[in-house]
Every structure is written in C-alpha cells, then in structure tokens.
Amino acid sequence: MIYITGDTHGDKARFIENNIGDDSWTEQDYLIICGDFGYIFLNDAYEKSVLEILKQKPYTICFCDGNHENFPAIFSYPQEQWNGGKIHRIAPNIIHLMRGQVFDIEGKKIFTMGGAYSIDKHLRKTGYDHWDEELPTMEEYDEARENLAKNQNRVDIVITHTAPTTAINLLGASGTPEEQSLASFLDYLMHNLSYDKWYFGHWHVDKAVTDKLTAVYYRVYCVE
Fold first, then answer.
1. CA distances from 1 to 4, 81, 83, 115, 210 (A)
2. CA gyration radius for the chain?
3. Quick check: 84 and 133 in contact, CB under 8 A?
4. Which residues contact residue 172 at a Cβ distance below 8 angstroms, ignoring those fewer than 6 apart?
5. pTM of this prediction?
6. Do residues 25 and 58 lie in contact, with contact meaning Cβ atoms separated by under 8 Å?
C-alpha cells in the first residue's frame, strides 16, 4: 500500500509520537513525503538519532526534495536506479526520489518533481540552512519531459513539493517571481499530463484543492 504525507521538517514527533504506520504497516508498504524531509539537514546528533529510528521501520520511506533540504548532504549518498527512476539511497528503507523521474511502485506510475523557492531565504545562511539547489535546473526539466514522454505522458500519481499556480491561487496563497519557471512547468503538466491524483506539500495545509489535486501536510493519505 502507498501512503502520502507532507513536510516533516525533521520533526521526531511525526514518526515517534504519532507512531506513523507502526501498528499495521509492513515491508510491503511505502510512505511518500512531499518534500522538506529534514532529517538530513544540519547533520547533528539529534538528526542522526532520528534517522537511526527511521531505519528500523519495516516500511519504505520515500521523499521528494523540498526547498528546505541540505542538498549536498543528500547528493552525497549513492545514486542508483530503483523501480524505473533515479534515487539517492539514504538507507535500505529510506529513499530520495530524484526530480523528473517516473517510478513504478505497487503497480502505480508515480512522477516526482521536487524543489521550491524559500521565501525565508533572507533569514537563512547559504551553506548552513539554505542551499542554491532548491530549484530545478533546465537539465532536470528536460529529463522530466523525456521520462514523461517515455510513458506517453500518462502517470497515476504526481508528487511535487510546491504546486501549479492554479492550485496555489485556490489555496488563497501566491507564488513568487523566483519560482515562476517551476510554477510554469507545473502549470503545463497540470493541463497536458494525464494523471489520476496529484499530491503536493510546501503550503503546510491539508486540503483537497480540486478533485485531483490535494495539498498535504500533517495527515497521512492512503492511495487506493
């Protein structure tokens, strides 16, 4: 079974106090986090202790990247092919789903596109708690288009960190000029890609925006 949730930001309580999946989930289950994973960020003793706990989970934890990620640290993990797409293998059961990939998970075609712009960038220090790789590159956009074309522009599920402009507006929020290239790309996908469901994080709200697009944060959604 596939489960989806939003930004975890390195919060121990999301897995420990809330006990996500511990009662019934097995090695056949997958939890996908829609960006801002946050357990590989400052690389301090606290994060390492939480990662050790996550490594003991029976299920597989997958995440696309958000904007609040330590990209050099994530990129330092081994890159490999997994279920049809590129990943960074953090641990046997912890996987970074790279941008522009199409994965086959439990019989579902899942497209992933991480990244977003940090509106709090001016409050952060580059190389300490902010990294320039937060937005996709042209090469990643090109790879996304190529991978979608190989799948006839049809997937079951889209996983992103931020959302198309239409969805952002329906949330009563607004994007930023710095994020326009990503927003335009996601807008194009929204209108030209065939998909059943689209889940995104970033906006810290749990809300069905349309019958297909869902903003996710704290809740855990089960994909039938």
1. 10, 21, 15, 25, 23
2. 16
3. no
4. none
5. 0.95
6. yes
CA count, 13 A, side-chain hemisphere, 1: 12
Question: Token digits for 128?
Answer: 């300490």
List CB contacts of 177: < 8 A, sequence separation 6 or more.
none
Go through the domains of the chain in sequence order and give each one's CATH number. 2-223 (3.60.21)
The one-letter code for the residue type at 100 is: G
CA 17, CA 24: separation in Å to the nearest integer? 16
Q: What angle do CA 22, 211, 160 make, to 5 degrees?
A: 60
- The tens-digit pLDDT sequence of the chain (224 residues) is 999 999 999 998 888 766 677 678 999 999 999 999 999 999 899 999 999 999 999 999 999 999 999 999 999 999 999 999 999 999 999 999 999 999 999 999 999 999 998 877 777 888 788 888 999 999 999 999 999 999 999 999 999 999 999 999 999 887 777 788 899 999 999 999 999 999 999 999 999 999 999 999 999 999 98
